[in-house]
Amino acid sequence: MRHGKKVNHLGRKTAHREALLSNMASSLILNKRITTTVAKAKALRKYVEPLITKAKDDTTHSRRTVFSYLQNKESVKTLFGEVAGKIAERPGGYTRIIKLADTRVGDNAEMCLIELVDFNTLYTKDGAAKKAKTRRSRRGGKKEGAETTAAIETSEAPVAEVKEKKARKTSKKSEE
């Protein structure tokens, strides 16, 4: 039984696994999309998403913390500059794993693409166009169309009364 064993060791010792994940995370941040096995992608997701969350807060402490994981100045600069700007409003789920149909020739391992969500233009254009109100109340409330027509009618009524009064005053002056 594997109770409480959450880490996939990926057939490597700790130092080798940390180096592997660090290099893959740097490649993902710099290239925005990499091809790897499904097991490595799932382990990479757990490794890189907390780093991306930390990149939202651009302080010296968070930069040093992220650098201790990545060990690559260019990827830290890209993460805090380009990537953090795009994911600033996203509450989580920064990566997407897309399984590929083909397997690796040597060992028949399942392959996949892991990518940063906001950098795929195929999905972001549709999402931006369909940005709509997501929360709905359970009670009906007034319709927007009914409110606007009522507001227009009430705003026109005083204007019509003022015009009639002015017309009466001018007609009385002309009679005198």
Structural class: mainly alpha
Overall geometry comes to globular
Helix content: 55-70%
Nearest-integer average pLDDT: 84
In brief:
The chain has 176 residues and is mainly alpha-helical. It contains 6 helices and 3 strands; from the N terminus they run αβαααββαα. The protein is 58% helix and 12% strand.
Task: Lay out the secondary structure.
Layout: H1 14-31, E1 33-37, H2 38-55, H3 60-70, H4 73-86, E2 95-103, E3 110-116, H5 121-129, H6 144-175
Antiparallel strand pairs: 1-3, 2-3
Task: Explain the overall architecture.
The structure is a single chain. With 176 residues, the protein is mostly helical. It contains six helices and three strands; from the N terminus they run H-E-H-H-H-E-E-H-H. Helix 1 crosses helix 2 and helix 3 packs across helix 4. The protein is 58% helix and 12% strand. The mean pLDDT is 84.
Supply database-style keywords.
single chain, 176 residues, mainly alpha, three-stranded antiparallel β-sheet, 6 helices, 3 strands
